[in-house]
Amino acid sequence: MNGINIKPALQIEAVVQVKEYVVCAHPDSSSPNWRHYRVRAIRFDEGYWGVFGPGGIEGQERLDSAGCWSSPPDDDDERQLWREARRFDEHTALELARAAAPLMECMGKSIAEMVAWEAERVAAEAPEVES
Question: Which residues constitute the domain of residue 77?
């Protein structure tokens, strides 16, 4: 080829990396209220995982190892300790998210109460069938 040395193209492979799991005990993912009952396990670039409420990272509320939700304190030193206490490996984060999901509430309603309320609304909006 006219003395031109062409090197083969660099082989680059795509890597799939899970960055987030969404765990929800609400049985109907098409419900507009489903998102309010989700718990999110999110992987940080540093490799650790955090467990967040429906608002995710933006909501800031995180679960600790005892299953208690809290927001970060205002004090910088306290905030760093707070964050460190809420860093988990992937397995632990998923266990915590699975345990927390059935206990989520929205507008003061448990998942069971919300599903019943949604069913009542659907039934009330359905046209009556004459027999």
Answer: 20-125
3-state secondary structure of 68: coil
B/e letters for 104-119, b = 16+ CB within 10 Å, e = fewer, are: bebeebebeebbeebe
Q: How far, rounded to the nearest angstrom, does the alpha carbon of residue 111 sit from its chain's CA centroid?
A: 16
| 49 pLDDT tier (thresholds 50, 70, 90) | very high
In angstroms, the CA 81 to CA 85 distance is 6
Number of domains in the chain: 1
Does residue 131 sit within a domain?
no
pLDDT tens-digit profile of 82-125? 999 999 999 999 999 999 999 999 889 999 999 999 999 888 88
Q: What is the pTM of this model?
A: 0.79
**Beta strand 69-70 pairing with 105-106:** unpaired
Q: Does residue 47 belong to any structural domain of this protein?
A: yes
- Using CA atoms, how far apart are residues 7 and 69, in angstroms rounded to an integer? 56
Closest residue by Cα to residue 70 from 47, 100, 98, 91: 100
